[in-house]
Amino acid sequence: MKKRFAATTSIAFITFALGYLLVVSLLIGFLTSKYLSGKSTGERGKIGSIRIPFKRWRIHLHHWLYSLALIAVFAATGFHLLTPGLTYGFLLGVTIQGVYCYEDWHRILVDRHHVAAEQNYDVFQGMAE
């Protein structure tokens, strides 16, 4: 009962403080990102990740990273779609989903040899089962 009251009170306060459009668009951004992204870490989603090979490294541009970059660009230029609350709420929802739902959210620069070793291990692991 206390948890439900705390959650309801928190949601009511956030909605009042930020505005219901921002909260609704944040939820829509989170759910859209959840639907389009891979179900777990390393799994391919409906839209593939952006991975850039660079010398011995692989740069992984997570969706939360370019969503955060868009928030910064839109804030700096004053650009928004429909209302600022909708734009920033949606992008913030995408950012929160990317950080909250994946274990490797912080891994942006990865050694390509390490990635190849992990992939070979996964292949052999699957054969043993």
* Overall body shape: globular
How are strands sequenced across the largest beta sheet? 1-2-3
State the helical fraction. 55-70%
What kind of assembly state do the chains in view correspond to? single chain
Rg over alpha carbons: 18 Å
N- to C-terminal distance: 44 Å
In total, the number of strands is 3
Mean pLDDT: 75
Main pleated-sheet profile: 3 strands, antiparallel
Give me the number of helical elements: 5
Helix and strand sequence: HHEEHHEH
Number of domains: 1
State the low-pLDDT regions, or none. 120-129
Strand percent estimate? 5-15%
Alpha-beta content class: mainly alpha
Describe the secondary structure blueprint for this structure:
Elements: H1 2-18, H2 20-36, E1 50-54, E2 57-61, H3 63-77, H4 84-100, E3 109-111, H5 112-128
Antiparallel strand pairs: 1-2, 2-3
Structure notes:
The protein is mostly helical and 129 residues long. The protein has helices at 2-18, 20-36, 63-77, 84-100, 112-128; strands at residues 50-54, 57-61, 109-111. The model is unreliable at 120-129 (pLDDT under 50). It has one domain. It is globular, with a radius of gyration of 18 Å. The chain is built from 5 helices and 3 strands, in the order H-H-E-E-H-H-E-H. It starts with a helix and ends with a helix. It has a 3-stranded antiparallel β-sheet. A hairpin with a 2-residue loop joins strand 1 (50-54) and strand 2.
